[in-house]
Every structure is written in structure tokens, then in C-alpha cells.
Specification:
329 residues; alpha/beta; TIM Barrel; eight-stranded parallel beta barrel; three-stranded antiparallel β-sheet; 17 helices; 11 strands; globular; binds flavin mononucleotide
Length: 329
């Protein structure tokens, strides 16, 4: 028995689970581990660093993997698209920005094109652009995102895009989440937080420990970390990460942070180098509730699949014929 969906057909995978392309965290080893386990690993090219991309594609060895890039940043470094496409990724995922200028180049290749959306309008645009699959990302997600919640957003996107496989993202890190996403009409899931503390992830030891010890209550969305990192993100998106002394100090005083930027950036960068997670960004989402341990990504994925199968069977058994006794009640 296995859970087989149109997404599995489209991407040629055994399980309908994708590793999110977490910038600087989803490297070649993690992407390969998820792919070898039967899902599809996407390496997180993030803002686009050619050397990093080359190294991480090499680290994936023979595994069949995909990649994800941040679209507004790619627009400033368009040559990186060739670098990624030359590696013949199984899928290319673009998020956060206008991908229209890249469509024809991507269409020249065999790669499946996936776009991550945060609003219904973006879902309509992606459908009109003829993408192969759409990630509907809820605000529970770790990392950058918008304001819609996964539970109503995913079925609303499914209703709009109809035949195009929808991949649910945001707050999904175990089999219950996978089963729920399928019940909402999604064809699979994209998980970031759930793999953040994997053995193969490039997150630092302290970041993994902080994520495992923390929970969803400890996360919040803000722009504080982007300002500290000198990243000029468009205002449509902000970042969910663990709350810490740095966010507590500046979240209500963004102007103050901007005024004190040189000193605060120096403090932030020093903390990054020292792996001090009370100041640096531990980028995980509400699904931090569900990360209980550090383990190989394969263990996480296989537990997710068997738990989802159990839940789908159990939920199926809730549907019963109406008996005479129940009629009388
Ligand atoms: C550490 C981290 C880094 C992320 N970086 C990226 C990124 O570079 N590009 C991107 O499209 N999404 C990125 N995301 C968001 C994911 O694509 C995805 O939407 C999210 O992880 C799904 O929600 P979850 O974290 O609850 O699983 C990141 C998420 C995390 C946790």
C-alpha cells in the first residue's frame, strides 16, 4: 500500500512529499536524503550564490533532485537560472516575485516548473502561466510568507486551479498534516520546518537544538531579521522565525533598528559567527511543535507516510452506514 497522487506521477516520485528549498539549509545532502527516501528534495538556492549552488548540486551526487530560488533575487542575478537548469533538476520552484521573464527559458527544458503562492490572485496568475504545480503556502510556514492560513487557503487554491496539482505548505510536518492536506484536495505537501533539524540539514547545531526545544508559540513573523541581514525584501512578505532577544528588542521599533543598523548588524553578524541563537535567526514555523528530535530525513519522511496511511484508514472508518438503531436515536 502507498499514497499515490497525481503529483507523484508528475514528478516521478514514490511519496507526495517535497523538501522545501530552504535557503542555506536545504543543501545537497538533505535534498538527496529526501529524494532517496522516495520524496523530492529541492536544494535551497535562496538569494543565489553560484559557488554554493555548484557545491550543493555536487553534494547531492547521483540523487534525482530539484532546486528552488527566490524570484526577486533571481531577477538581479538572471545568469543563475542557466547554472541551475544546466544541472537538469527534476523540478524548479520559484517563490516570491515575478517569474514571467523566466518562463520561456524554463519551458526550453524538461524540468517541471513549480511556483509557490500566498494569495488567490497569485494562484490565478500561476494557472494562466501554465505552471506544472502550485505550492499553496500558509502563514504558519517557516521562513518568508504571507498572511493566509493553510486550512482555508489550500482548498480555495484547489478550487481555482482545478487540474493543476496543488502542494500544501505551512505547518505540515507529520502524517496528520499530510492526511489533512490530502483531505483538503492537495496532491502533496512541501515541508521545511519538519526537515530543519534533520541530520543532513545545513542548519547549525544550536539552531537545530533551539528548534527541537522550541514550539510554534515561540515563532512570529516580522521584518527584523531581514533588516539585520541587509536584505531588502519586498513588503508583501516577512519572515517567520523563533522569537528571541533580538526580535523582542526591535519588532516594535523598526525605525530604531534602521537608525542603529551598523552597530546592530555587527552584533547580529558576530552572533551568527558564534552560533548564538538568542540573537540570530532560527528560521522555523509553527510546525516546530512537531519536531521532537534530530534524526535522518529518511526517518522523518517514512514516519510521515506511515502515519498518514494510518490516519487516512482511521478517518475512512468514521464513515459508516446509518443503522436502524442510529435512526431511532
Ligand atoms: C529555514 C527556512 C528557509 C526557507 N527558505 C526559503 C527559500 O529560500 N525559498 C523559498 O521559496 N522558501 C523558503 N522557505 C519556505 C518554504 O519554501 C516553505 O514554504 C515552508 O518551509 C513550508 O512551511 P513549513 O516550514 O511549516 O514546513 C524557507 C523555510 C524555512 C523554514
Amino acid at each position: 500500500m502507498s499514497i499515490h497522487t497525481p503529483l507523484c506521477e508528475l514528478l516521478g516520485i514514490e511519496h507526495p512529499v517535497l523538501l522545501a528549498p530552504m535557503a542555506g539549509v536545504s543543501g545537497g545532502a538533505l535534498a538527496a536524503a529526501v529524494s532517496w527516501a522516495g520524496g523530492l528534495g529541492l536544494i535551497g538556492g535562496g538569494y543565489g550564490d553560484a559557488d554554493w549552488l555548484e557545491r550543493e548540486f555536487n553534494a547531492a551526487g547521483d540523487a534525482r533532485i530539484g532546486a528552488g530560488l527566490i524570484t526577486w533575487s533571481l531577477a538581479r542575478r538572471p545568469h543563475l537560472l542557466d547554472l541551475v537548469l544546466d544541472r537538469a533538476p527534476a523540478a524548479l520552484m520559484l517563490s516570491f516575485g515575478d517569474y514571467q521573464p523566466f518562463l520561456s527559458r524554463i519551458r526550453d527544458e524538461q524540468t517541471k516548473f513549480i511556483v509557490q503562492v500566498q494569495t488567490l490572485n497569485q494562484a490565478r496568475e500561476a494557472m494562466d502561466a501554465g505552471v506544472d504545480a502550485i505550492v499553496a503556502q500558509g502563514t504558519e510556514a517557516g521562513g518568508h510568507g504571507g498572511t493566509r492560513a493553510t486550512l482555508p487557503f489550500v482548498p480555495a487554491v484547489v478550487d481555482i486551479v482545478k487540474e493543476i496539482p496543488v502542494i500544501a505548505a505551512g505547518g505540515i510536518a507529520d502524517g496528520r498534516g499530510l492526511a489533512a492536506a490530502l483531505a483538503l484536495g492537495a496532491s502533496g505537501v512541501l515541508c521545511g520546518t519538519g526537515f530543519f533539524a534533520s541530520d543532513e540539514s545545513l542548519a547549525s547545531d544550536n539552531a537545530k537544538l533551539t528548534a527541537v526545544c522550541g514550539n510554534g508559540d515561540d515563532t512570529e513573523r516580522s521584518s527584523v531579521f531581514d533588516i539585520a541581514r541587509g536584505l531588502d525584501w519586498p513588503p508583501d512578505w516577512n519572515i517567520r522565525a523563533m522569537r528571541n532577544s533580538f526580535t523582542r528588542r526591535w519588532r516594535e521599533d523598526i525605525d530604531g533598528l534602521v537608525r542603529n543598523l551598523p552597530e546592530e548588524q555587527a552584533r547580529f553578524n558576530a552572533a551568527w559567527a558564534a552560533d548564538e541563537t538568542d540573537i540570530t535567526a532560527v528560521i522555523v514555523g509553527e510546525a516546530a511543535d512537531l519536531i521532537k528530535t534530530r534524526e535522518p530525513a529518511q526517518a522523518t519522511l517514512h514516519r510521515m507516510i506511515s502515519q498518514a496511511e494510518d490516519h487516512l484508514r482511521r478517518i475512512g472508518r468514521l464513515v459508516k452506514p446509518i443503522t436502524k438503531d442510529r435512526d431511532i436515536e
